[in-house]
Amino acid sequence: MSIRVPNREGNLNVASPVLSVVIPCYNEEEVLPVTAERLTSMLSQMKAEGLISENSFLLFVDDGSKDKTWQIIGSLAREQPMIHGIKLAHNAGHQNALFAGLMEAKKQADCVISIDADLQDDVDVMREFMQKYKQGFEIVYGVRKSRASDTFFKRTTAEGFYRFMRAMGVQIVFNHADYRLLSRRALEYLEEYRERNLFLRGIIPLLGLKSATVYYDRHERYAGQSKYPLRKMLAFAFEGITSFSVTPIRFVTLMGFSIFIISIAAGLYALWSKLAGRSIGGWTSLMLSIWFIGGINLMSIGLIGEYIGKIYLETKQRPRYLIEERLAPLPQRDTSYDKMGSRS
Ligand code: UDP
Ligand code: MG
To answer: pTM for this one?
Structure first.
């Protein structure tokens, strides 16, 4: 049974908003204690300044980690009531873990800020995020000023990725990763996107809500290794492109068409050569064209298969994630819509 929350059209709770900070974590035992400490103190400061409600909280999402991440979240939560956690049953991937956290936080929060566990993003700009929210912005993008802290390889591939995405016609905010604020309404809209192939950076601009940008410096990872090796990064880029754009398939169609035109010309030339008695046993050219056409065919079929694969996954409508455990029931924020649904 799904519970619909009444949509408070354009009515942001700006006086004392409940903020939830959502942090997806995959094998982050090395940074977690420091991250929790930094975020708790940031939240406490903002509470003291009256920027956010006393009920604001942190929500750690353990994305099926294999190390002690979940145990650490558990012990942090016992010490600090503003820390909450959910554990996914298996490694669902960054985007799905983040989505799980956003949907969980939405039950209690007026706005949510998502941030990585590794402290690469500047925690202090959360204050600016909240100020923008109070001015009525429902989406605030954290955009990094420079990529100086990245390796040359990461920088070039990442920037190439943004350019390529743009060229493919995917609306995407340059140099913005998943550090952003979303209002409750933005989250409700986001929930309507039921696709399995989740690429949040492509979906958020489509929500069409009033948005602002905040710039910050991105640091190096505080500790631990990147959980995005080249293999995952390429898969992510491929996902982004094939989930949002039909340009690649258009390109194949166009290429097929061009080759068709060329082959007509080539055919006429061959015919003319024959009639003029100038034909030569063209074994090489024959072999070449067989290979060439064969290659193009295979590539096109592969690409079409990619889209069919996506349709296949979408039609299965599998759950994106399953929550295995909850640390403590989050405090009820408003029961007016939930009278029927008994929470056990
Ligand atoms: N992450 C996750 N599931 C995964 C991979 C990564 O929840 O399968 C989390 C990770 O713990 C981190 C965030 O996603 O909080 C971003 O990952 P990372 O910092 O390794 O990526 P990078 O900054 O190197 O692109
Ligand atoms: Mg990182």
So the answer is: 0.81
